[in-house]
């Protein structure tokens, strides 16, 4: 049961209210639960909206009302305000008769009572634009003659509260729909209103501090209303100087937050303190302690090379914030005390009267009050390269935020005056400006620098290697002392083992491999700005993608036309070329017999006469409408009139260029799509205007309040009158129609005879309104943008100017039909989405479009799958605002589609996904997307539509703005990681062989087979060239069939560690066999035996490079010569090995001696044994199903 409205409740509750005084936190906790329920009530079968509202009513009546709790948490009150506004406007009924539901009335009453009782709730309401409240509260549905007394009382109480509490809402007409203001005016002058006013039920405590206008664009306020909101600002003299300090204290200085300045020394220090680099530095210290300065020099070269590469990348990335700082405007021209003066832009405060001239930068976000041919260059914010013409007109909109490009009455900080002059009142300064919000968000994300997955994994691997090095040093010393050997010599041997642990080439090879991946991705229209992003892409688990232009073509096309005689026309192709594509029709007679077409029972009785003859289904089947020689169609009269409206109630144009015969368009995308459909029917504008003689005499432009556009045409040489052609939102258009067109029995041609005929009509009734509503819903469910068409033939009186000509008003129209338009998905995107899902990567659509359209497109692409649990959830951005950050993280299932989102919503979504343990790739184009892109693990900017700041904040730029390119980039990222894994396994198995070799010989009291210099030379020639070649290894089959790697897992798992250990032990065992036979059986000198061991180990390692081209598959399956770079690397490395053995001077420096022919035979035997064992191990791994 709904609670009585504001001002009428005198109920005496016999209950001890003191029992409910249990603290503010408890109240807030209860409200938090109810706010969450308001959001989830549609998806939660265990609770109803009535129960949720009843719970809030309990809290209000027994724990808040009566000054028991007049202060609550501000952010909670904001979410409660949004939650109640989601419910207050819910209506039932059809287009012509709507009424608010009982639950909506309950939410409306609660909204008013929180407004009376809680200060923070009033603050939240005060931040909302009047038009937003008008659309959400739906006061106009509660002031009609058919409204209940409770609804009328509530409407009066709400108007009284809002107009007395907030100066920006002083005019109640801003809160009521224009068409219903007459009803509200009657209601406010009624005895009921006077009675409520006498009871003083809406009297509220006045705030102690002066109410200053909140920072906002005020695009919906007229200049007159804006000046009332800023009473200290004179439109000629500006602000008086004495109020400036108070305003500056309230709003702060007009400065962008300064980003942390990049420090070259800090960047170098960051590079040098990377764990892998620390290992190399420790190795250098070891070599210096051993006085092995040659070895130390080799390691220092690797360290310097890595530091230079890493420093260069980070220095370039730091320029993003520096570029943003250059956007601030240093000077401003302002009128204060009637004097025009120029001073620092930092001193501008809200309320200042700013003067703008051509070429000047704009110092704050302004609401313009005077313009003279004024245009602003706003590409930095919108990506739109053309200057935007500005006006002072108020813009009515349904939402609190509209696209910046549509804010014709505003000028934005850091944009530039392209033309003309203007005056404007500063409404937002500093961090509150559009550019200030972006700067703050980017600064916040820069404070916490998150390592990429490969950086974290290599760092973790480095820690393991340090631990191994320490353990080995201690182990060797202990073993040596146990063998009664000199402790100092054992320490030197232990340090040599530590050197063996370090894969000197790992850092350099990783960098080069990612750089090569960057080159391959560039060939696929994907530019990578930061190297680690290449590998990170391969690990992403979620791709958040924009819809328009990325998943879809980014241009509208007409797909369906439903006419009032119940015929349905389908348009194919959608090309600008009128000769392309075709038009097919489903006749009304066929649709009456189609069981899937919804019609009311009453309509069936009244409009479907019983057929007296058998139906000719062959004649009724859907068919393509043929064209005549002049490309025109013959069709039902309703179809022709609809095409007439599409072509002439339209300001776009389509033409063919003379240079290359390409078809180009100019104008609004929706109007271009309608004109293209008319051209496809052969009824071009040139034919209608020049051949038939139609002439435009008046136009009433579209606006978001009326939601209609109309054009008036006369027919040359005819005295019958004019055609009023109208298009717009179906609901608004139908309410202005008195009749609908019945349609002709036969097909007709568009000619003078047709235009002079009378239109056959029938009155609009509830049955027809329901039918239109059903067809509108059917189109909307397919993701179509739906417009209505109407027409009327009139005769102007000629007594008034065109604007006031009664015959040309948008009333008493004849309804023609509905047209459905769509921005279709790009070719290949659905396949790419399927590939992502097969690869275990979730795709989430984030768009500013309507939820119905977004859901329909997502369903077509496979992002939403209604029959798959957890893959069919879509929510609105304003619903997201209701939830706390923790509640968003806990959403289950997590939505696949987010519609009508703001840039703040995008940042929340990315952060929530990261808290859930996901690796997120985020796409965007405008500068408003930069914070979310920077926060994401991989930021993806659009190359064609993206702004420069967005590209600088991103890790990757898509040259062609195509989602399929992201999928190719993910595949390349996996390819890069695959290759990194291969050479890590190769490097560690080779270095592990050296460790086992040295450790086993030390433990067995055998002379160490390798010197430190030999180890370093082996690592350089046998590690780096083959590892580089593995970094260029071609992609393996089935790469996108694997699930993404766990972001929390290391580079290596148990299987790969086992593979590394066994392969290292095998290489060490074969080398030890050859070495011990040479010493103890063949009695080689220690120097010759060491050279044999060096040649044997290096040869096996080089062969192992060839075998490591795949970890689990056979090298014979991939092809021995599949990677030509590997063959070249083996030849190069083997050449360096032979030079080190046989080249005089060099072999002395490396402490090597020439190896005999007999020794080479033993080396070949060891290599063959190694190859057989490794391939056998791969076979066993495949058989056991081991995951690498």
TrEMBL record:
Alphabetical list of PROSITE patterns matching this protein: ATPASE_E1_E2
Molecular functions (GO terms): ATP binding; ATP hydrolysis activity; manganese ion transmembrane transporter activity; P-type sodium:potassium-exchanging transporter activity
A Pfam family: Cation_ATPase_N
Membrane topology: Multi-pass membrane protein
The keyword Cell wall biogenesis/degradation belongs to this UniProt entry's keyword annotation: no
Transmembrane intervals: 268-289, 295-312, 464-483, 495-516, 983-1006, 1051-1077, 1089-1107, 1127-1147, 1159-1181
Cation-transporting P-type ATPase N-terminal domain mapped to chain residues: 217-292
Domain of life of the source: Eukaryota
Subcellular location field: Membrane
Coiled coil: none
GO cellular component: plasma membrane
GO BP, one annotated term: intracellular sodium ion homeostasis
Keywords noted in UniProt: ATP-binding, Membrane, Nucleotide-binding, Translocase, Transmembrane, Transmembrane helix
NCBIfam families according to UniProt: ATPase_P-type
Family named by the database record: Belongs to the cation transport ATPase (P-type) (TC 3.A.3) family.
Protein name per its UniProtKB record: Cation-transporting P-type ATPase N-terminal domain-containing protein
């Amino acid at each position: 049961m709904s609670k009585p409205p504001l001002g009428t409740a005198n109920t005496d509750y016999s209950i001890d209210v003191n029992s409910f005084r249990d603290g503010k936190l408890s109240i807030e906790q209860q409200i938090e639960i109810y706010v969450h329920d308001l959001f989830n009530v549609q998806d939660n079968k265990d609770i109803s909206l009535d129960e949720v509202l009843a719970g809030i009513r309990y809290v209000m009546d027994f724990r808040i009302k009566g000054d028991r709790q007049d202060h609550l948490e501000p952010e909670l009150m904001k979410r409660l305000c949004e939650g109640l506004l989601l419910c207050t406007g819910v209506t039932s009924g059809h287009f012509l008769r709507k009424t608010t539901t009982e639950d909506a009335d309950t939410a409306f009453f609660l909204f008013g009572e929180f407004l009376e009782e809680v200060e923070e709730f009033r603050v939240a309401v005060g931040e909302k634009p009047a038009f937003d409240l008008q659309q959400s509260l739906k006061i106009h549905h509660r002031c009609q003659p058919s409204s209940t007394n409770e609804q009328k009382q509530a409407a009066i109480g709400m108007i009284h509260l809002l107009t007395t509490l907030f100066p920006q809402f002083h005019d109640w007409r801003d809160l009521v729909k224009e068409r219903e203001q007459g009803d509200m005016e009657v209601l406010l002058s009624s005895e009921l209103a006077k009675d409520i006013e006498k009871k003083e039920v809406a009297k509220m405590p006045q705030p102690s501090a002066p109410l200053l206008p909140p920072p906002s664009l005020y695009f919906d306020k007229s200049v007159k209303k804006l000046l009332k909101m800023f009473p200290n600002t004179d439109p000629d003299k500006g602000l008086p100087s004495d109020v400036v300090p108070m305003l500056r204290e309230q709003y702060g200085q007009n400065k962008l937050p300064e980003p942390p300045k990049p420090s070259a020394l800090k960047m170098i220090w960051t590079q040098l303190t990377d764990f892998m680099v620390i290992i190399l530095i420790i190795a250098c210290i070891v070599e210096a302690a051993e006085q092995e300065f040659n070895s130390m020099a080799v390691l220092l070269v690797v360290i310097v090379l890595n530091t230079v590469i890493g420093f260069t990348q980070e220095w370039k990335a730091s320029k993003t914030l520096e570029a943003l700082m250059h956007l601030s405007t240093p000077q401003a021209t302002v009128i204060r005390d009637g004097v025009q003066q120029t001073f620092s832009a930092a001193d501008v405060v809200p309320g200042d009267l700013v003067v703008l001239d051509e070429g000047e930068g704009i110092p704050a976000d302004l609401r313009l009050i005077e313009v003279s041919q004024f245009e602003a260059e706003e590409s930095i914010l919108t990506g739109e390269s053309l200057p935007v013409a500005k006006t002072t007109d108020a813009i009515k909109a349904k939402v609190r935020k509209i696209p910046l490009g549509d804010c014709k009455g505003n000028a934005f900080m850091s944009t530039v005056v392209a033309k003309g002059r203007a005056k404007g009142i500063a409404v937002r300064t500093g961090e509150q400006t559009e550019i200030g919000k972006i700067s703050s968000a980017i600064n916040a994300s820069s404070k916490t620098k998150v390592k990429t997955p490969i950086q974290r994994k290599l760092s973790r691997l480095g820690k393991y290697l340090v631990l191994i090095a320490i353990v080995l040093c201690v182990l060797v010393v202990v073993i040596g002392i146990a063998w009664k050997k000199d402790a100092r010599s054992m320490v030197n041997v232990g340090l040599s083992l530590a050197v063996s642990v370090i894969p000197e080439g790992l850092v350099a090879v990783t960098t080069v491999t990612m750089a090569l991946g960057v080159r391959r991705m560039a060939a696929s229209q994907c530019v990578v700005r930061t190297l680690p992003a290449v590998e990170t892409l391969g690990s992403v688990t979620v791709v958040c993608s924009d819809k328009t232009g990325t998943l879809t073509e980014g241009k509208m096309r007409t797909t369906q036309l439903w006419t009032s005689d119940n015929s349905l026309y389908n348009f194919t192709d959608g090309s600008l070329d009128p000769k392309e594509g075709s038009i097919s029709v489903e006749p009304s007679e066929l649709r009456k017999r189609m069981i899937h077409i919804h019609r009311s029972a009453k309509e069936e009785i009244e409009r479907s006469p019983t057929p007296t003859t058998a139906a000719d289904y062959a004649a009724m089947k859907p068919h393509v409408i043929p064209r005549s020689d002049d490309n025109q169609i013959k069709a039902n009269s309703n179809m022709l009139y609809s095409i007439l409206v599409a072509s002439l109630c339209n300001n776009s144009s389509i033409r063919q260029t003379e240079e290359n015969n390409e078809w180009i368009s100019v104008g609004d995308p929706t109007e271009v799509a309608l004109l293209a459909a008319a051209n496809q029917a052969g009824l071009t504008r040139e034919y209608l205007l020049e051949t038939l003689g139609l002439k435009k005499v008046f136009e009433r432009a579209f606006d978001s309040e009326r939601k209609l556009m109309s054009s008036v045409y006369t027919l040359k040489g005819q005295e019958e009158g004019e055609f009023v052609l109208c298009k717009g939102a179906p609901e608004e258009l139908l309410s202005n129609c008195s009749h609908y067109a019945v349609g002709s029995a036969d097909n007709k041609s568009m000619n003078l005879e047709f235009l002079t005929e009378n239109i056959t009509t029938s009155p609009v009734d509830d049955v027809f309104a329901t039918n239109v509503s059903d067809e509108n819903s059917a189109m909307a469910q397919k993701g179509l943008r739906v417009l209505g068409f109407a027409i009327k033939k009139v005769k102007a009186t000629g007594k008034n100017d065109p604007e006031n000509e009664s015959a040309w008003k948008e009333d008493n129209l004849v309804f023609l039909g509905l047209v459905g338009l769509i921005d279709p998905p790009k070719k290949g995107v659905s396949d790419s989405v399927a590939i992502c899902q097969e690869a275990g990567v979730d795709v989430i659509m984030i768009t500013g479009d309507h939820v119905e359209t977004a859901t329909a497109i997502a369903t077509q692409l496979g992002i939403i799958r209604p029959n798959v649990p957890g893959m069919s959830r879509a929510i609105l951005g304003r619903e997201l605002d209701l939830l706390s950050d923790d509640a968003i993280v806990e959403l289950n299932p997590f939505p696949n589609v987010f519609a009508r989102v703001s840039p703040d919503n995008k940042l929340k979504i990315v952060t929530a996904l990261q808290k859930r343990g996901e690796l997120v790739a985020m796409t965007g184009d405008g500068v408003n997307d930069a914070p979310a892109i920077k926060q994401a693990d991989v930021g993806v900017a659009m190359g064609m539509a993206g702004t420069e700041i967005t590209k600088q904040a991103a890790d990757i730029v898509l040259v062609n703005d195509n989602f399929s390119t992201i999928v190719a980039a993910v595949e390349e990222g996996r390819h890069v990681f695959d290759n990194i894994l291969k050479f890590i396994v190769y490097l560690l198995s080779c270095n592990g062989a050296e460790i086992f070799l040295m450790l086993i010989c030390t433990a067995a009291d055998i002379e160490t087979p390798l010197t430190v210099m030999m180890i370093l030379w082996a690592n350089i020639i046998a590690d780096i060239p083959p590892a580089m070649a593995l970094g260029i290894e071609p992609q393996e089959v089935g790469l996108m069939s694997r699930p993404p790697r766990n972001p929390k897992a290391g580079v290596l798992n148990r299987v790969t560690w086992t593979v590394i250990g066994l392969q290292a032990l095998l290489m060490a065992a074969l080398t030890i066999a050859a070495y011990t036979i040479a010493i103890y059986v063949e009695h080689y000198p220690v120097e010759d035996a060491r050279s044999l061991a060096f040649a044997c180990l290096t040869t096996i390692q080089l062969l192992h490079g060839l075998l490591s081209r795949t970890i689990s598959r056979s090298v014979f399956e991939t092809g021995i010569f599949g990677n030509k770079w590997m063959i070249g690397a083996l030849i190069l490395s083997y050449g360096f090995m032979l030079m080190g053995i046989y080249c005089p001077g060099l072999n002395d420096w490396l402490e090597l001696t020439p190896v005999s022919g007999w020794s080479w035979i033993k080396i070949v035997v060891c290599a063959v044994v190694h190859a057989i064992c490794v391939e056998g191990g791969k076979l066993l791994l495949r058989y056991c199903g081991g995951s690498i």
